[in-house]
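User: Fold both of these, please.

Assistant: Here is the first one.
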Amino acid sequence: MKYIIQFLIIIAFSFLGEVFHFLIPLPIPASIYGILLLFTALMMKWIKVNQVREVSTLLISVMPMMFIPAAVGLIDSWSIIKSHLLTYIIVTVVSTFVVMATSGFVTQYVIRRDNKKGEE
């Protein structure tokens, strides 16, 4: 029963992301809205990590399986993709480094902020 409740919490935030995507006319995927809402709820302590820990761990462990349909789609579209392959590689490499740098800066900011709170 605990897993069902945890899964329903995550699904509820995913649904709220869909609602936000419908209401806000920005080119942002609904899943991003849902993740940001869940992150906000966790940071504001409206939801405790213990309330979603086991199911989120399970979902992360099966995440590679979720990329199989996308990979098959790429294989099906190879005739279109191959003429722009260099562009795709450049965009992938650059965006990977941008995401890594941003994640690192945000992580350092959060750690420093938490350390300052601990000292006070």
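And the second sequence with its predicted structure:
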Amino acid sequence: MSENMDKIKDESAPRGEMGQRYLASGESVSMRLWDSQEPGDPKPEAARPYETVGYVIGGRAELRLEGDSIPLAAGDSWTVPKGASHTYVILEPFTAVEATSPPAEAQGRDEA
């Protein structure tokens, strides 16, 4: 396998402190999975130093982005611009995949 190729097996995908599972990652982009996140209080509001795009596999959530409230359900996709203040409220067990650019987990950028 070429040194710039990356394969992550499901059982070996590392977990982050917020419940995310880190998937394949390159120099410019990475993926992570939020699997069966349970409803509860909103996640802490944050402004991250990376852009995020996501796709909802199942469940429902609300993205609160710069004062707007955006409902998310299976089949929806979204974008959070780099530096935008946002939070998520999980309304039903929620599964989604996100891609971040630059990679979220690099140099502690994914910490709560």
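The CA atoms of residues 38 and 93 lie 5 Å apart.
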